[in-house]
């Protein structure tokens, strides 16, 4: 099982709306993530907009490809893109760069 952690930056003026949007993530988006192999997926948001994402999956590259193939992910990414800083034209899910794990205590 791969453990994946990534960072993104939510725009300061959109933090509250970002939180509100994640209180009711579309059921079809939740189902697509599960079906694509995203497990134990969490997002943590600091008051300054630093977003930490964590998930577990058998194969992160395959899980990303599976989400790329869904229509619901395209809609979600289009709506969420405006919330982030420094995407350089990428969708939020394309801008995720996994961090290198340096320690784990099972």
TrEMBL record:
Protein name, UniProt field: L-rhamnose mutarotase
Gene Ontology terms, MF aspect: racemase and epimerase activity, acting on carbohydrates and derivatives
PANTHER family to which the protein is assigned, alphabetical: L-RHAMNOSE MUTAROTASE
Gene3D superfamilies, per database record: 3.30.70.100
InterPro entries assigned: Dimeric_a/b-barrel (IPR011008), Rham/fucose_mutarotase (IPR008000)
Record-linked Pfam families: rhaM (PF05336)
Organism: Streptomyces radicis
Gene Ontology biological process: rhamnose catabolic process
Source species, domain of life: Bacteria
